[in-house]
Design goal:
Elements: H1 7-18, E1 26-27, H2 35-42, E2 49-58, E3 64-72, H3 79-86, E4 92-93, H4 96-103, E5 120-123, E6 133-136, E7 142-146, H5 148-155, E8 158-159, H6 168-175, H7 205-208
The structure holds 5'-O-(N-(L-cysteinyl)-sulfamoyl)adenosine.
Residues 32-35, 38, 49-53, 93, 95-96, 107-110, 135-136, 140, 143 line the site of 5'-O-(N-(L-cysteinyl)-sulfamoyl)adenosine.
Amino acid sequence: MPSPLAAPIQRVVDAAARKGVALDVHVFAESTHTAEEAAAAVGAELGQIVKSLVFVTPAQDGTLEPILCLVSGPNRVDLARLAAVTGETDIRRATANEARALTGFTIGGIPPIGHERTVRVAMDPDLGRFEVVWAAAGTPTAVFPVPPATLRMLANANVAPICEERTRGDVLGEHADAAGTADGRGQRAVAGTTPGPAGSGSGNAGAAGA
Ligand code: 5CA
């Protein structure tokens, strides 16, 4: 009999199941706490790792409202952009304790779905470059693969420019292997031009996003 999933992982699996998606959770012996560790564990590139970063803004009743940012591994959230996208003026990073209290999960394992309460979610369009991305599944050793468009649906995420501009050097370095293609966007899964496996919603989250 398969061993039962840890309770936090089960909450993530159940949340996806409620939307009709069966998650394929991978649990590792080694840590997947950081994006770098997760990329090494699954053999993906850093950009395919979904960082689930918790920010907070004061709600009208004086409590803190969480805002979850789903961010491609190498990218960083730009607070001014996040403020513009959410319409909030007072946003900061959650502390580790706040993140745990607001989501029900511990940093390093915070998933994009299955939280304690309804969370507003903003998603980095760069995740839409890949056919599949990998997100934390509730603990710091568990991740799951998901097409970015499915992730957007599951998290009810608003795909919007929330990250700092990458430098030209960053982008050229990353795309060096794909330089010179006709459309200039490289050969790597630019969804919308490259159909995903089994039509499972691997479209470009960015193209469809707000
Ligand atoms: N499992 C991996 C890959 S899916 C993961 O969860 N990565 S993560 O980026 O979403 O979570 C780790 C992030 O938590 C780090 O990038 C770091 O920015 C953030 N973090 C670590 N410690 C703290 C802290 N004390 N307060 C707020 N954020 C923190």
